[in-house]
Amino acid sequence: MVKLVYSPQWFYGKDILIDLVSIFVLCMIALFSIKSYKIRKNRNYLYLALSFGLLAVSFLFKILMNFNIYFKFLEKSQLGAITETYHAMRASNSIFPISFLFYWLLTLFAVYVLYSIYEKQSISNHLLNIYLIFVSTYLSYPDYYVFHITLLVLLALVTFVYSRKYLNTKHFATKLAAYSFGIIAASQIFFILVNISNYFYVVGELVQLIGYAVLLSTFIMVLKYGRTKDTHRHNRRYAYFYTR
Prior knowledge:
Helix content: over 70%
Strand content: under 5%
Radius of gyration: 19 Å
Largest sheet: 2 strands, antiparallel
Distance between the termini: 45 Å
Number of strands: 2
Oligomer: single chain
């Protein structure tokens, strides 16, 4: 049996609005990274754009998945604790499993790309890690808890990398980035606890939104100070979030 709805009934649809805001933030950062690459010709900007772009697309699949679920269930007369087998859901609508799978894969792959920007590895290691992401997704799918535990581990690694970079460089934007990814990682803990209470799902969505809001503030800061008269000094202090 696979539980398909983790949100309280009163929160149906509101998580979709939160995800739309997250998509806006991610797209803004991806576009800014592309613009920065055109100016500085640093490939790390392209990898950042790829990572945040993939995250934005993954949220689109999540929205499609949730909209499909909420729409089907709201048509029913009873909206209590709804649990159906994955097989039944797949037989009734192929949109759900496809959206679910792409949401998982794109999210995990995007976070791995973000991690690999600062943790340089050989091509063979990259290929191995990507293969393991695909295999673990296939074997655990559609286990909700395995996905969020895996995402928690990856985000914790990203947070560690940015924290270490901040300790070495003292760049303020890197500090904000470490905070933001730490907050997003913490949100996964609340998603894991939904079996205790579905109100943890609401808390997880809100905490995740706060994390992306901190990322947006970092983006605005870099954009703002990058246009000041003392461009060189501010870029060195604030733009380190985007470079190695």
